[in-house]
Write a structure and sequence with these properties.
The complex is a heterodimer of chains A (235) and B (318).
Chain A: E1 2-11, E2 14-24, E3 29-33, H1 40-48, E4 53-60, E5 63-64, H2 70-73, E6 78-81, H3 93-100, H4 104-108, H5 110-120, H6 122-126, H7 137-150, E7 155-159, H8 167-184, E8 187-192, H9 195-201, E9 204-209, E10 212-218, H10 219-224, H11 226-231
Parallel strand pairs in A: 3-8, 3-9, 6-7, 7-8
Antiparallel strand pairs in A: 1-2, 1-4, 4-5, 9-10
Helix pairs in contact in A: 3-7
Chain B: H1 3-38, H2 46-96, H3 114-136, E1 151-157, E2 161-166, H4 167-189, H5 191-201, H6 203-208, H7 213-235, H8 246-260, H9 265-285, H10 291-305
Classes of the chains: A alpha/beta (235), B mainly alpha (318).
Chain lengths: 235, 318
């Protein structure tokens, strides 16, 4: 579904990602882990087009993604739940979800989708008319996830959904994501620093360090890898 | 009439005049609110966009408005006709110049591109002012309609008190209020309005929603330009103008937007309304030269007492 080959990207001519290759098959759950500053968010922004590419190629469902303008990429079926949530603070929760549903598929399935999103994340239904900026961090994360789901995506990209949340809240968010995946079989690409959880449920994992993929493979193999165990799992 | 009644009459008269002129100031401020309040673009040329709107309305009036619609209705038709032209002007300005220093382009710039915006828009202001002087000349121009000097009388009531309501200003105020209501509905209710607000709130996340942020900003800039220009065209039926008239109003606009609360379109309207009232009421006791000084004393008071403005968002920008 998503094929990234030798992708190079960065900020003002300084490359952050060096020749990164990554594949996500339809229906898979792929995790990307690695320390701060490894380029995980840059990889996501490269896919969504808010960071300028410097080389390599990205294909989504066979289409050359780097030729698609950034604001059109969501319409192809890519939902990006960005780092730090980035909800529309002055818009109500419902309006945030509406913004997600601007894609053709999102519009078509809106009313059914909304019901489903409220069923998964009932707190959004309770707060539907409240400005998203007044919500707690965990609730804002739900808004960001709900907004992504409202686009009826083929691929949901989640950038550190646990960031800045209390451990119990982060666990709750993670459980919700797993519930949604169980219910829908949605293809997921997750960036996470909570490595144990990220590698526990995913099919494939990539370890990104200083902009390079240093390790990749099925998650059970990564979990057993000595380097991963020492560096990320504290074992 | 007793002395208190004479005083009461002039206070009432000033309030009525303040409400009418305030509605037009409010419209003017709403135009800036779209650009400064919502998109956070510091636009020094807003007053000069208004000046262009006045000249555009003038030429539309002289060109066809007066012949087709008569001198009374013609001036308002001319002001309304100038608005789409000014939308196109603002749209083109953004396309060619402003977008280089705003939105996602400015992310890497110092102070998010605000310095660059100051210098660019100040430059645009100077070019427009001097360009207008070359093209239109330095003399005062006015749109004279029979309504400019016609009034409805209310009264006599009480003990011989009477108010007169200038007809041109009543119509201008009514048009202003109607335009603001339409704009407010557009922003709150329509998909376009919501995506404009989203693009203002968080440009990056808007891209992830499939919103063309650059185009949304361009639309907002065009709307802001057209609305302020329309206010200018309405004002032109009562006030003579010249190429440098923008300087007098740009300050009123910024004061109105800050008074109302940055980011609030309706707030900007009340901000402009407040300024109209303060200006007219202060004229009762102070010489006209001190009108603007009074506005700023009042402005400072409000900013000290309520820094977020009347309708300021207390919502943290995440």
């Amino acid at each position: 579904m998503l094929e990234i080959r030798n992708f190079v990207a960065g900020y003002s001519q300084v490359a952050v990602l060096h020749e990164v290759s990554l594949t996500v098959e339809a229906g898979q759950f792929v995790s990307v882990v690695g320390p701060n500053g490894a380029g995980k968010s840059t990889l996501f922004k490269g896919i969504s087009g808010t960071v300028a590419p410097m080389g390599g190629e990205i294909r989504f469902l066979g289409e050359d993604l780097l030729k698609v303008p950034p604001s059109r990429r969501a319409h192809l079926g890519i939902a990006h739940v960005p780092e730090g949530r980035q909800v529309f603070a002055s818009l109500s929760v419902l309006e945030n979800l509406e913004m997600g549903a601007r894609t053709p598929e999102g519009r078509r399935t809106w009313s059914r989708n909304l019901e489903q999103i409220f069923a998964w994340l009932p707190v959004l239904a309770q707060r539907r008319d409240q400005p998203a900026g007044t919500l707690s961090g965990g609730e804002q994360q739900m808004v960001a996830i709900g907004r992504g789901l409202a686009s009826a995506p083929k691929l949901l990209m989640l950038d550190e959904p646990s960031m800045g949340l209390a451990p119990a809240v982060a666990d709750f968010v993670f459980d919700k994501l797993m519930e949604i995946r169980r219910d829908t079989g949605l293809t997921l690409l997750l960036v996470e620093q909570r490595v144990a959880e990220a590698l526990q449920f995913a099919d494939r994992g990539y370890v990104l360090e200083t902009g390079r993929v240093v390790l990749e493979g099925p998650c059970e193999r990564l979990r057993a890898d000595d380097r991963v165990r020492q560096a990320y799992l504290g074992m | 009439m007793s002395e208190t009644q004479v005083l009461l009459e002039s206070v009432l008269q000033a309030i009525v005049a303040g409400l009418f002129i305030g509605a037009i100031y409010g419209l003017m401020c709403v135009g800036l609110a779209m650009i400064f309040g919502i998109m956070r673009v510091i636009n020094f040329a807003q007053g000069d966009f208004m000046m262009l709107g006045m000249y555009a309305a003038y030429f539309a009036f002289v060109g066809f408005g007066a012949q087709l619609f008569g001198t009374a209705a013609g001036s308002f038709v001319a002001a309304l006709a100038a608005a789409p032209a000014m939308f196109a002007f603002g749209w083109a300005m953004h396309r060619l110049l402003i977008r280089r220093v705003t939105g996602t382009q400015s992310a890497g710039m110092e102070a998010e591109g605000h310095y660059a915006q100051l210098i660019l828009t100040l430059g645009i202001a100077l070019v427009l002012q001097n360009g207008a002087m070359i093209l239109f000349g330095a003399h005062m121009v006015s749109i004279r309609t029979p309504l400019s000097s016609a009034a409805w009388f209310v009264g006599p009531f009480g003990d011989g008190m009477a108010l007169f309501l200038n007809k041109a200003r009543i119509v201008a105020a009514a048009v202003s209020v109607a335009v603001i209501l339409a704009l407010w509905l557009m922003i709150r209710r329509t998909g376009l309005g919501k995506s404009l607000r989203a693009a203002a709130d968080n440009p990056e996340a808007s891209v992830y929603m499939g919103i063309d942020v650059d185009r949304a900003h361009r639309t907002a800039f065009g709307l802001g330009t057209a609305i302020t220009a329309l206010a200018g065209g309405l004002l032109a039926a009562n006030y003579p103008f010249h190429p440098f008239v923008g300087l007098e109003y740009v300050i009123i606009m910024y004061a109105g937007v800050v008074l109302g609360g940055i980011g609030s379109v309706l707030g900007a309207f009340w901000g402009g309304m407040t300024i109209g009232l303060v200006q007219q009421l202060s004229a009762l006791v102070l010489p006209t030269q001190l009108q603007n000084a009074t506005i700023f004393v009042f402005f400072l008071l409000i900013v000290i007492l309520r820094p977020q403005g009347f309708f300021g968002r207390n919502v943290e920008r995440v």
